[in-house]
């Protein structure tokens, strides 16, 4: 898997104080409702045994094997001030308006509002 971090997203990610061994976990699940969609969550965590680790521009991304089934080979992470993060591929947008939220000390969670 390849993750391309756009410049604006990289600027925002550089503001996060990652602790040793932490990275961004990408959880993706195919949702079969009246439309076809992939539900994505991003959160700061440490690597787990079943994760594939992808390092881009010094940022570790942890993707569980099950999530790899729901994602394309290459995704883009972008950021727009006032709108938040956007996750997309060359074919589709998976989510936008992701904001950063402090969940507990030392932990940041991305969520879509």
From TrEMBL:
Pfam families: Fe-S_biosyn. This is Iron-sulfur cluster biosynthesis family protein. It comes from the Bacteria. Residues 1-82 form the Core domain.
């Amino acid at each position: 898997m390849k993750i391309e971090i756009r410049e604006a997203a990289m600027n925002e990610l550089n503001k996060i104080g990652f602790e040793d061994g932490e990275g961004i976990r990408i959880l993706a699940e195919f949702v079969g409702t009246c439309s076809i969609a992939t539900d994505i969550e991003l959160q700061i965590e440490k690597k787990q045994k079943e994760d594939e680790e992808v390092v881009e521009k010094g940022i570790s991304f942890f993707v569980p094997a099950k999530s790899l089934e729901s994602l394309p080979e290459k995704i883009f992470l972008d950021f727009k001030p006032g709108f938040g993060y956007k996750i997309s591929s060359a074919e589709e947008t998976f989510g936008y308006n992701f904001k950063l939220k402090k969940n507990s000390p030392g932990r940041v969670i991305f969520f879509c509002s």
